[in-house]
Every structure is written in structure tokens, then in C-alpha cells.
Amino acid sequence: MEPARKVDHSDDRKKAQSKGINRGNKTKKRMTKSFKEGFSGYIFMSPTIFTIGVFVVIPILYALYLSFNDVQLLGGIGYEFIGLENYTRTIDDERAIIALKNTAEYVLIVVPIQTILALLLAAALNSNIRGKNAFRIIFFLPTVTSSAVLTIIFMWMYNPDGLINNFLKFLSLPTYNWLADPNIALKSIMIMNIWATAPFFMVIYLAAMQDISDSVYEAATIDGANWWQKFIYITVPILKPVTFFVVVMGLIGTFQLFDQSYIFSGGSGGPNNSTLTIVLLIYQYAFKSLDMGYASALAVGLAIIIMVVTLIQKKFFGEEKLHD
Amino acid sequence: MKKSIFSKTFVYTVLITYAVITFIPFLWAILSSFKPLEEIVSGITFLPENFTLNNYIQIFSKEPLFLRWMFNSVFITTCMVILNLIFNSMAGYALARIKFAGRNFWFMLILVVLMIPFQVTLIPSYLILKMFGWLNTYQGLIIPGMVNATFIFMMRQFFLNFPKELEEAAQMDGLSRLGTFFRIVMPLAKPALAAQAVFIFMASWNDFMRPLIIMSDEAMFTLTLGLNTFKGQYISFWNLIMAASTVMTIPSLLIYAFFNRYFIKGVTFTGGK
Amino acid sequence: MDMKINKMLATVGVTGMLLGGVLAGCSSDSSSGSGGDGDKTVVELAGWGASPEEKELLQQTLEAFEEEHPNIEVKHEVVSDQYMDVMKTRLVGGEAADVFYLDASEAPGLIDTGVLEPLNDYVTDDFDLEDFQEPLLNAFKSDGTYYGFPKDFSTLSLFYNKEAFEEAGLEGPPETWEELQEYAEKLTVDEDGDGQPERFGLGISQELARQFYKFQPHGGQVTDSEGKAAFAGDNAIAALQPVVDMYTDEKTAGLPSDVGTDWGGDMFGQGKAAMVIEGNWTIPFLENNFQQLEFTTTELPTINGEKATAAFTVAYVMNKESEVKDASWELISYLTGKDGMEIWTSKGFALPTRQSVAEELGYADDPLRGSFIEGSAYAQPWQAGKNLPTIMNNFDNQFSSALLGEQSLEEALKKAQETANKEIGSAN
């Protein structure tokens, strides 16, 4: 952590210097320039603002509105304002608490493992080795396959006499009932998802590593740094914005775990609620019971949890470069 | 020197082990697509004992709409990739590089958007599409998906690391912001764009829930939906499912192989050469 | 900066809510948009996916309908997955098909919302209501009003492997549940003696849909008159304990997932269970995929001295928002009428709900299908009020944990009932 900070500070200093120079040269043009900048900023943003506004923000606000109402959607839409009742209902909802517990366990185990695995794989691939392309294509297979297909393949491998148990038997290791045992089912999903998601983040790391200048490493090589030192003291600190992205996306993705639980449990979150996640619970309330008000309240609650965790992690990472 | 050999061996061991772990499930699935159903269900054979192409022939010959589904998927996905690449990169660039009023607000908004599970917005979005009369149309799938908060965020993080000097030079030469972006920045952002293109291709190609709700006419189905109709209510044709899954995965793999070359070092711009 | 964001959020928020209100207003009164093509009236028909053979059979039935009604064109839509979720979304948006499939278990909930067209006024004497099997007809009736007519059904029968019976020296099927338990013990094969049988005597399924019919012979029920869960009690324990014992102690019954299969038919076909309790749909599956298998079907063994089985049935219902109601009725009355049903059920994928059609097709004498027809006389439709989805979900979860021995059956049932009723209570 210490050297990382060092590099970062020097980086900031450089930036401050260059900013100073810019300012000195362009004071006169500042007003018109900032107007121009603002204008072009909005031109760049306009497709995004339109699409996200119409198809994401309005639906979210609508959902937010629903969360304060007792909603009837079918047979004529009807609302009845009930204040915070949908929110207080969660406290009493045993399954909501189980879902939260399962989701938290899932996030805490999956995010660190998949991030570190992605970073290490990317670093290994980015080093000077043969057969890079072959490795890269193989590693990427899970990411190019639809999650439905992956889940089908894994349900198959997780069979009591499927590939995985046969392999464990071959090694004289204990076998498990991967999907039917409540103590194991969630872990089976974890293993599968780490396996499937790590390469996705690996590609992002890899793309970012391509952008790191050789000269940085050359200097370190002259100083006698080995591969590991270069990785820890140069690569990791430079990749900080990307790691921020990877961790945030990992958190959001894991908090929103749905597909795999849904397919593995046939939508029930079983066995014995062991694969019940928050989003699966939201889905059940929204579509099985058509209780959109309560489903929306749960979703807003989840969004708040994710936001808080993201903010905590931002602090943990140090100040992220918002103002470049 | 010894240390370097040791670390090389270590790197290879890690890579090869992981490659095996990754490859086996796929190999197994692909091999299964060449087996008759009886062989698949009668237990574990790794290599097909009764090799057959019948599964592939069946999915192409028995389903008259198969080619139409393929076209729909290709058309929708192509539009999505092109629009997303342009719009996400523009937004990501603006958020990373251009100083404009409300920049932090928009960035926070995009982060918030990412945090809401999409199941919640499903019914409201459906009502909006209905209001526009876009249900069961191509634009109903394409336009709501033509930007993606995830990749705006990703592009922003990429552009934060982007060297400034080139843009500044371009602006000195009198290029406008848009001109600089399309002529200078985009061509240099190839690794990130390639990554993004692959991700968007796959997300769109494999999307299930949205087409399921939006497309009601069988002729408008995407490949994912179409293949799902192979699965009867109670009857599992694993042989067909595996063949169909293989057919579905091949285009993604080809796209990845194509874009893969842009990841390769040498195209990048920051290097000394 | 925070202030600014709050202000902006507030503005956007108000606009959004206004728009949301407008959207909601629009959606409830706009048309379903099924217009005419020339002089032809187009009727949209939605259902879930089925095997290619079934799809072709439906196509034949629809063609026969169009021939008889040259002024009507049927547009068939397939919802390939998560059928009810998609249908509910489309109903909310006012975009649902004119006529669609509805499973009996979902019927009370959907009828309750008022999105279905009451059909009493359309029914003529020619339609011959008396001809339907009564329990199946009643599954779509509420307060004397019919909201749909059952297109086909299946009951549960006992499938058994003849070879396995011969090997075990068993003759004829078990008559009572106690006998079934003894049979299962003789039929279970565990060659390597690891406690994990290669072939179970009985393949079971832990879902409420496959267990509920056992309550009634013991005097129990799934729900009370208010639609709340009411199965926790000695009745249900007496009904379910044998299954739990067979699974946990005797190890003579297994779940499909224990032997790496998807469902009972698959388990039975692969020879991993000598008996399974499954529906009519299993017959074509076994005939197509396991041609060597020698099997037959029989009525379920009696429970507490009474005959009991479940009936699964699906109806055609009409969307209340439909703009072509008369044509829609023509379609429904054809498909559930004698002619249409005869074509649709002619191949035996599903069984006819009309007695006259069943007689015509001779299914009562069919060696494989006869037991299903017999069962329909006393079958209990899979249906239990509008809260069934919630109840089912909680039962399935708790019962599977009882099967795993994590809690006693009594505790599991109690917990399932309490949680379900709490959820139902706070939803209303």
C-alpha cells in the first residue's frame, strides 16, 4: 500500500504542475473556453442523457414512487399511498433477512477472489510468454458464452455422478451433492461465477495494461526490480482507476446475483432458501405475487446498500480521481 | 537468471492449469452435441461413441424460422455494437476529460443507474415502449440499449489514464472537440474499444429477458429466444440444446478472435516507438 | 455540490413521477391493437412452447378452425419461457393476446384481478357444458361464472419398470401406499453398497404440486376457506411421513437430482428408479427416447384406504381487453369443443377433458393411458386459491429441508405455513 501511495502522489504533483502551466497560458480565454467546454460536454452526453433518462431514470423514479404505495397493476392500475409501510415490512420478512445474509456472504467471498484472480491472470498473460493468443482465447470462453448456457453446462457437471464428482472420486476426495445440499448450493454458484466472471475482468485489466508505457518498466529493470516487484510497485498502482471499476462492477454484479440462482433453483431460491438472493426475492414479489410496491421497496433498499458499500470502498481505495 | 526461470515456470503452470479448468466444460459440451440423446442420458462418456451430426441437421432443418432468428440476432447485435461504441465512448470521454457544469452529477447518476436491479424497471420500461408503439419492433430492443452505463463507466476509467498531449496538440491545430474525439482519441483507444465491442456483442447476443418480454411474434425472435423454444415444457432434448448452444457460441467466439488482435501490444500509442 | 444534486434530483423526480402517472393512465385505456387484415378478423392466441410434434398438432387444429371460419385468422404466439411472468407483464401493458393458455394453479389469482372475460353469456346449448369432466371445469369457475374452459388435462399415475418387477419377483402393481413402500425396498439396488443406491425403488418429487393430493385422504387440506395455508397438522404429517421415511431412513426413494437427472420421467427412463409417479406427458417422452424400456402405468396406490391423485389442467381464457371478443369466443369454443379437442388430443400428448371425446378416442381402453382416465374420476385439480404461488414456494423450501433431515417434518410444515401466512398477511 505504501509504495502505491508514493507513485500516486508524484503523479498528482505532475498534474498540478501541468495544470498550473495551462492556467498561466490561457487565463484570457478562460470564460469562452469554459462555455465551449460545457457546450461540447453536453453534446457528448446527449445520446446518453436521452436514452438513460427515458429508459432508465424515469422507470427508476416510477419504481421509487411505487415503493411508497400499495400497488395494483393488473386489472386497472391502482395506487394507495402507504408511506413507509413497504420499507418497514422488510424487518419482519424472514426471507428478506435470509436473502440479505446469502447475498452478503456471496459478495464477500466472490468479489475479492475474482478481482485478484483477474489481475493475476492478466499480468501473467501480459508477461513475455509464448502462446499468449491461445491462452487468451481459451480464458475468454466463459465470457463469450451466455450465462444460460453456462448454467446448463454447470448443472450437468454438478450432477451427483457428473464430471466434477467423478474427478473428485478419482482423486479419492469426498464428493458432494452440489445443487441439492443447502450447505453447498450457494458455494457451487460462487465457484461457477468466479470461474465465469474473472476472465471478463481479466480482459479489462489486460486492455489497460497494454496502455502502460514500456519506459516505466525499463527504468525499474535497470534498478534491478524483479517481475513481482514491478507488478506490485508499478502495475498495480497504475491500474488503480481500473481496479476501482472492477471492484465496483464486481460489487454491483454480485449484489445483483439472479440468473444462476433462478436457473439452479427453478426460481424458488431453494433448497431451503439457501440460494435465495435479494434480486431473486424482488423478482418473486414483482412477478409471482405482483406486489410491485414491496418489490420496489426492496430494490430501493438494495440500491442503497450497494451505494453505501461503493462509497466505503471508494474511501478504502483512497481518493479516486474525479477531477482530472 | 535462475529466479527468472523459476518465475516463468510458475507463470506457465498457472496459465496452463487455468486453461485446462476453463476448457474442459466446453469441450465436454461440444462433444456432447455430437452424441445421440440416449448416449448423453445414459451416463458419462467423454468422447462420443456414436458420433452423429444429426443434432445439427435437426435444428437447421426442422425449424423453418431458424435463419430468420439468426438474421434478427445479427442485425440487432450489429446496431447495438456500433451505437454503443460511439455513444458510450463519447459519454465516457466527456466524463473523464471535458469540464462541464453538472459533470459530477451525471457521473453519480450513471453509478446510481448501475446499482438498481433491472427487474424493477422491467414493467415501467415496458409501459414506455408500449407508449412509443415500439413493442415487437427492432427499435424497441435497440434504442433502449444503445447506451450502457457499465461501459460508460468503463470508458471513463480508461480515458482517465489517457495521455493528454495528443489532444492538446490537435486542439492547437484547430480541431473541434468532436473532431479531436473522432479523429485522434477514438483511433488510439482501440484496446478499450475492442474490449467494449466484445462485451456489448455478447450482452446483446445472449440477452434473454428483454427480447422475451418485448418480442411477441415468432418471426421477430432472436436466436436466444428461438433456441429456447426447443426446450419443451417437460421434455429435455439435451443433444439439441448442446448443439444449439454451440451454434450460438461460435459467432461470439469469432467476434472475439477478430477483435482480439486489437488487444495485442504494438497498436498502442504510449510506447516509445 | 450536494445541494445541487439534491435540487436536480428533485426536479427530475417530479417530472418523472408526472410522466409515470401519464404512462400509467395511458396504458389502462389503450387498445390491444389487433386489427383486421382485409375482411379477416385476426385473433391472437398465446401459449407456451411445446415439443415439435405438439406444435404441429396445434397447427393442424388451428388450420381446421380457419377452414371452418374463413373470416378469422389465428395468429399464434409462443412465449418460450417464464410464461406467467410474461403474460402478466403484457396484461399490465394492455398488450396481451386475445386468447391464451392458463394453468389451473394460476387461475384463482388471475380471475381475482378481473383481467379475464366472463364467458357465461357466450355459452350456448350446443357447446354442451355437461360433457366436461366436472372437477376440471370447476377449476376455472368462480362464483358461478366461467372464465375459461379446460383444453386438456393429465392426472398422475404410477409408472413401473416391468423388468425390474420381474427381477424382484413382484407381480402386479402395489395397491396401497404401504405395499408401495414394501415394493420400493425390494426394487432398490445398491450394488457397491455405498449407501447411495444405483436404482431407487421410487422416484419422488418434493414439490407441493406432487404431494398435495395426499392430504385429502387423511382429512387435511392445502388452504382454508380464506386462502391461507392450512396444512400444518397431524393430517399432513400422516400423509407425508411415509415419503420422508422412505427418503431419509429406508433410502428406497430418491429425488431426480440425487442421480443426476432433471425430472422423474428422465430418472425412470434411465433406469435409476423402478417406479415413478408422473403424468401423461411422460408416455411420449419415454416412447421417443427410451425405446427399449419395458414399462406400464397403473392407478396410484390408495392412501389411507382412499383413491387419490392430482389433476393438472390448462384452459383457454379470453382477455377482457380484447377487441375481437366474438371471434375469440369462436376460437375458444372450437378448441375446447368436440371437433377441435378431438384433433388436439388425438395423439395422446394430452387427454381430452370432454367425456365424449375420450370415448371417441378410446383412451379408457388404452393400456398406457387408461389409468389416467380412471384417475380423472377422483382426481383433485392442482389449485388452491390465489395465494398458491406463495404457499408453494414456502412448502417446497421447507419440505426439501425435512427430506434432508435438517428438521422434522412437523417443524418444516409449521414453519412453511407460518412464513407463507405472514407473507400473505402483509401483502393484503
Supply the CATH class of the domain at 63-229 in chain B: Mainly Alpha
Tell me about the largest β-sheet of chain B: none
C-alpha-based Rg of chain A, rounded = 24 Å
Distance between the termini of chain B: 27 Å
Indicate the CATH class of the largest domain in chain A.
Answer: Mainly Alpha
Name the largest protein-protein interface in this structure.
Answer: A-B, 104 and 103 residues
Q: Quaternary arrangement of the chains shown?
A: heterotrimer
Characterize the structure shown.
Chain A has 324 residues and is mainly α. Chain A is built from 14 helices and 2 strands; from the N terminus they run H-H-E-E-H-H-H-H-H-H-H-H-H-H-H-H. Chain A folds into 2 domains: 15-66, no CATH class; 86-317, MetI-like (MetI-like fold). Chain A has helices at residues 2-26, 30-66, 85-92, 94-126, 132-144, 147-157, 163-170, 185-210, 214-222, 227-238, 240-255, 259-265, 278-288, 292-317, and strands spanning 69-72, 78-81. In chain A, strand 1 (69-72) and strand 2 (78-81) form a beta hairpin. Chain B contains 14 helices and no strands. Chain C is an alpha/beta fold and 428 residues long. At the A-B interface, helix 2, helix 4, helix 5, helix 6 and helix 8 of A face helix 1, helix 4, helix 5, helix 6 and helix 8 of B.
List the main descriptive attributes of the protein structure presented here.
heterotrimer, A: 324 residues, mainly alpha, MetI-like fold, 2 domains, flat, disordered N terminus, disordered C terminus, B: 273 residues, 14 helices
Concise overview:
The complex is a heterotrimer of chains A (about 325), B (about 270) and C (about 425). Chain A has about 325 residues and is mainly alpha-helical.
Set down the secondary structure blueprint:
The complex is a heterotrimer of chains A (324), B (273) and C (428).
Chain A: H1 2-26, H2 30-66, E1 69-72, E2 78-81, H3 85-92, H4 94-126, H5 132-144, H6 147-157, H7 163-170, H8 185-210, H9 214-222, H10 227-238, H11 240-255, H12 259-265, H13 278-288, H14 292-317
Antiparallel strand pairs in A: 1-2
Chain B: H1 2-32, H2 37-41, H3 54-61, H4 66-97, H5 103-115, H6 118-132, H7 138-142, H8 149-160, H9 165-172, H10 177-188, H11 190-206, H12 209-214, H13 223-228, H14 238-263
Chain C: H1 2-29, E1 41-48, H2 52-68, E2 72-79, H3 83-92, E3 99-103, H4 107-113, H5 134-138, E4 141-142, E5 145-146, E6 148-161, H6 162-167, H7 177-187, E7 200-203, H8 234-248, E8 253-254, H9 264-269, E9 273-279, H10 282-289, E10 295-298, E11 310-318, H11 325-335, H12 338-344, H13 355-361, H14 370-376, E12 380-381, H15 388-403, H16 409-427
Parallel strand pairs in C: 1-2, 1-3, 7-8, 7-9, 11-12
Antiparallel strand pairs in C: 3-11, 4-5, 6-9, 6-10, 6-11
Helix pairs in contact in C: 2-12, 12-13, 15-16
